[in-house]
Amino acid sequence: MEYGSRGYGESIYGQVDGPTPEELTPNLMSYLPFYYDERTMQSAQSALATEMGRLKWDIRNIMDQFFVDTATWGLDDWDQFLGRDPDRLKNYLNRREETKARLRGFGTTTVEMIQRVAAAFSGGEVTVLEYPAEFRFVVKFVGTRGVPPNMAELTNLIEMIKPAHLVFSYAYTFLVWQEAAAYTWTNASRMSWNEYRNIEIRG
């Protein structure tokens, strides 16, 4: 069975967890009286069970595509809806986050909208500093240290939603030595690098 031009199992979408054997072929004989327990009825119920199991799974799989948080092969359709080319080299989690960020960008552009979009990419608090006289604004990442991932995608999205006459830049927050020096080697060794560079923010 195919949806559009893509078939199940022909791409990375075949990597998603599938149904269990019990879900795919339920035991319909367990719902029938004992006198149906003979060869002809068993064969008929086995064939029906396979079709019913696949139908149930297909319905659930299709319904998952209507929601960004559960979509897999349907992310291509979300990309088409948002006017972007699918990037199938990225994993589902990253594609979902980018899709949700783009959905947040629909409507009239405001400072709050840009903050929400940037926060979705960085995973932390973001402030937008406006300089109207200079026709520019600065997106400052205050809830996470360093350069967030997927900056190229964020830049493309901000370019899409911002007013055309404005330019923008980024401001990042980094861990300085005075902050790191307050931690002993024993305390620091228990942290990952991501935790260590965010110690002041996370507390």
From TrEMBL:
Species of provenance: Heliophilum fasciatum
Protein's recorded name: Uncharacterized protein DUF2313
Domain of life: Bacteria
InterPro entries from the UniProt entry: Phage_Mu_Gp48
Pfam families: Phage_Mu_Gp48
